Automatic annotation (TrEMBL):
The entry's keywords: Bacterial microcompartment
PROSITE patterns: BMC_1 (PS01139), BMC_2 (PS51930)
Family: Belongs to the bacterial microcompartments protein family. CsoS1 subfamily.
SMART domains membership: BMC (SM00877)
Domain of life: Bacteria
Compartments where located: Bacterial microcompartment
Gene3D superfamilies: 3.30.70.1710
A Pfam family hit: BMC
Pathway: Polyol metabolism; 1,2-propanediol degradation
The protein's name: Bacterial microcompartment protein homohexamer
Coiled-coil ranges per UniProt: none
A Gene Ontology term for the protein's cellular component: bacterial microcompartment
InterPro entries hit by this protein: Bact_microcomp_CS (IPR020808), BMC_dom (IPR000249), BMC_shell (IPR050575), CcmK-like_sf (IPR037233), CcmK/CsoS1_BMC (IPR044872)
Amino acid sequence: MIFEGREKCNNVFLEETTMGDALGLIETKGLVACIEAADAMCKAANVELIGYENVGSGLVTAMVKGDVGAVKAAVDSGVESAQRVGEVVTSLVIARPHNDINKIVIKHKA
């Protein structure tokens, strides 16, 4: 199952992320569009799905990590796929995120 919940949260992102890693996020309205985005991102490039967040009011954000080029390609593909089945609210690629970002990301690891 893609989204197993927060009970498996740990410091994997913090421990395995290198300075060259990028963080990619896609926020959608509804879980179906988010799953479509996550599937497309993982198939489009060499990225790892690191988690998701159910923001509330139907908004769900999927997060991936990998090298900058792969994350950009994955997010582009994920946005395109999610738009076919639902609504994309926003997307973002952070190249070399600051280490303190890990404090947020590890709380929402799948």
